[in-house]
Amino acid sequence: MHVKSIKLINFKKFRDEHLEFNDDVNIFVGDNNAGKSTILEALEIVLNYSHRGRTFNGEFSPDLFHQKAVDQFLATDLSSKYLPSLIIEAYIDGVPEYRGSNNSLKADAQGVLVQACFDPALEAVYESRRLMKPTFTSVPVEFYKVEWLDFGWNPIKPIAKKFKALYIDPTRIHPTLGKNQYISSILNTALAKEELVKLTLNYRENLQVFNHSGEVMAVNANLDAEHLITDSKLTIAASTLPAGSIQTGLQLEVDDVPFHFIGKGEQSNVQIKLAIQNKSHDIDLVMMEEPENHLSHGNLNKLVHYIETQRGDKQLFLTTHSSYVLNKLSIDKICLVQSGYKRLHKLDSDVVKTLKRLPGYDTLRVALSEKVILVEGPSDELVLKKIYLRKYGWLPEKDGIDIIVVRGVGFKTFIEVGKEIGTRIHVLRDNDGDFQKHVVPARAFYAGFVNIKLFSSEVNEEFSLEPAMIYANAISIASLDAFAKEVLSPQTFNLYDEVVTLEERRDFLIEWFRSVKGNGKGTRKVDSAIRLFDGKLDFRYPAFLDEVLDFA
After folding, report:
1. Within a 10 A sphere around the Cβ of 20, how many other Cβ atoms?
2. Which uninterrupted H or E stretch holds 317?
3. Burial class (CB in 10 A: 0-12, 13-18, 19+), 481
4. How far apart are CA 478 and CA 258, in angstroms?
5. Best exposed site among 24, 69, 276, 281 by fewest CB in 10 Å?
6. Structure confidence by residue, pLDDT tens digits, 394-404
7. Ranges of H-type helices in 393-501
8. Contact 66, 12 (CB under 8 A)
């Protein structure tokens, strides 16, 4: 069973949206309050008829309606015909019993829906109330009926449901409230059905042994020996009647510590792994809220590897704020929830492979930002931030510009992610001594994408940012000396000061930045950029850096 898509009408942030999913993994990413968790909530409601761990009809409230639907209703004469409906539809493959065309798309499809709408049987009561001119501030849900139906318009009974979906969110568990539901869910997941039957039977038999123990029989013999309370026999006994009594009497333990008292990270670990392992083999779909929560990087690494290798054919839906989770589970499984909804299922396969092998890159920043500047190293980032700070009095992030250091993974990886989403990306790259060879073809390659722009010095001698900055400040010995004094240590400046002409001093600086290899070169660049960022020099810089920073 796979959920192909979901239709949301008047549900929270979603006025009227049809969201399509991947058959295997769906990773919801977006800013805080963008609606990621709302989609998981909607899935839980329509698949399990449950909201926040409780039956949905008991949790249905005015707060679940889209605000515009509420405002639109309140602007009318409040007649029942204007009352908005709340509808969640899941279009599913693999449940032919639920086929029909009773859905908002009028499609012949398999699926289930939850709808909350005005109950016509209450029309007279509602109209009487309306004529009293009430001051409604929200939708009067007291007059609504809530139904859980398949697309053939047949009511769904939880006990006979044709699929099983599990929602995992350790923040919901409470030492007493809700513990039984969690234990029930975990037992059903961890145990094969015959194992659960044996366990339940053995548990009930042991309760009967308790009831017939000498101590209990002695207590019961004296409980109402004189029949002052009742003429019948009054005794105390362990309850064995409810079929689910095992849920209240058993608890899961980890290293002899009750499950609800272990750390949230370990709770999440246990639940996710049990759900994926699923010895009862009847879970089709797993929903997870931010599996990275409460986990160290090492434990997160292990958990994500477990999900990767053990998932099988279960469909996964999860929210995350972790680039590591995103890259490792496959970045082309992104379901981006921002101003709209977009999947990245057509992302370049080479990019996907690269990030699965090298998951430490912060690709989520490209996915969530509207304006991004890609640079080759941290020294470039510091120089650009200093220029922006001088021009505007604040750093670029205040204006929503995110400067990202691509390091060894290359520009293409980040560009491909942003290209699919529509992120505006400015790339500051070195010309490596040949502008025509290294920059012009790259510009031509991305010419068809208006959101991608590449910037570099057109002067071959300005092969990277440092020589470009040196040439910009080499208009006189005085200006170059001031720049050198700002970016060099006192010892290195003394060596610089030994050369005489402007050209010699300029060449000394250029050679000093590239005269060492590997980390040494990078360290020199970063140390100098930090001095420039922290300093007060009104330095010059090449004009193309203004273009890099300009998203107007």
Report:
1. 14
2. strand 315-319
3. middle
4. 73
5. 281
6. 999 999 999 99
7. 411-421, 435-438, 440-445, 465-473, 477-487, 490-496
8. yes
